[in-house]
Amino acid sequence: MGLRGALIILGLLIMAIVALNAYDRGRIKRGLMALFEGRFKGRGVIAEAPSEDSAPPWSERRVLRPETEGPAEGTKTAATEEGGLEEPFGSIDFIVFLPGDTMVERDVALGIYKQSEYLIDKPHRLYGQREGTQSWGNLSRDPATARYGLLALALQLADRSGAVNESELNALSQIGLKLADALDRPTRFNMTFEQALERAGALDKFCSTFDVIATINVLADSAPVFRGPAIERAAHEAHLEFGARNIFHRKNPEAGACRHLYSLANLYQPGSFDPLRLDVFQTQGLTLFMSVPSVPDPLAAFTDMVEAARVLARRLGGKLFDADRKPLSDAGLRAIRTQIQDMADHMVQHGITPGSLNAVRLFPP
Questions:
Q1: Do both 251 and 356 map to the same domain?
Q2: Domain that holds residue 148
Q3: How far apart are CA 91 and CA 94, in angstroms?
Q4: Which SMART domains match (predicted)?
Q5: Is 276 inside a domain boundary?
Q6: In the predicted model, what is the mean pLDDT of residues 333-361?
Q7: Ranked by mean pLDDT, which of 64-73, 74-83, 113-122, 307-316 comes out on top?
Q8: What DSSP letter does each residue of 145-176 carry, written as one string?
Q9: Which whole number is the average pLDDT over 24-31?
Q10: Rounded to the nearest 5 degrees, what angle is found at the Cα of 344, between the Cα atoms of 343 and 349?
Q11: pLDDT at 256
């Protein structure tokens, strides 16, 4: 046998040894996994251990604390009154109106709008006054058979991500001009670009000032952990229902823009509850939180949230803590209530009522 043949045989032997080792490692790994799953099957699933890095669902937003100061008395924000235009508009939109004497079908107008609306990042909508009723409809949601007289192209001037820029104003205006050309309609703007940018800046400051969360943490005390079935029973006793984002919510009993008054989540990552594993779930902490500007009568909602927190603490064997996980006393709760009322009053002074349609659009849940 020549040298070449010997090298080939040697290479084949090496490949066989590598394959055998890989097979053995895989068999051992599968055996360990089976042993692990058999040993721990049915055991409780505990949330991530408490640490400074465990971020609750509201961690990206400013949170009220007993010692936090409210907005400055002289804060200049959106000083325009809400509602100066017909619904669904308010003081937070840049609008291109397209009046017409004849009716236009939904799909005709919507098709032109959809060709270019991807150029705009901020929330934007095409509305129309429905034939017969004169009520406003969102063309993206109305049935295909709908027809409209007056059209209105609206761009929200700000939200918690910042203010609209001139490029987006221009993009919306171009869409309006395309609609005008295609439908043979004139255009009318509710404000100039300069006015829109000035108002967008004021609304951006308004969002930065009032985008605030009120929260109460319930941490395990007499019990080492809170178990899933007990959490579910206590939540129902506190009038909380399981729902969106796999957390519990206190529904708004009144019809309005705000669907939920406050919510209950796991304090530790990922913050949610797996409904399929709730029977084996465990955690050492829960958090109740509400968006102050998004809730109608936020002081009343916070009072209701305090009572829910006390129900949870009593039923689960826990205690109330603030956002910094310091014990939450009656004095601390009174301080937070004072801040909430102060914020609500300031919002009204700046023309946007907590829990109103414009408030929910500026501070979506």
A1: yes
A2: 93-189
A3: 9
A4: ZipA_C
A5: yes
A6: 93
A7: 307-316
A8: T-EEEEEEEEEE-EETTEE--HHHHHHHHHHH
A9: 41
A10: 95
A11: 63
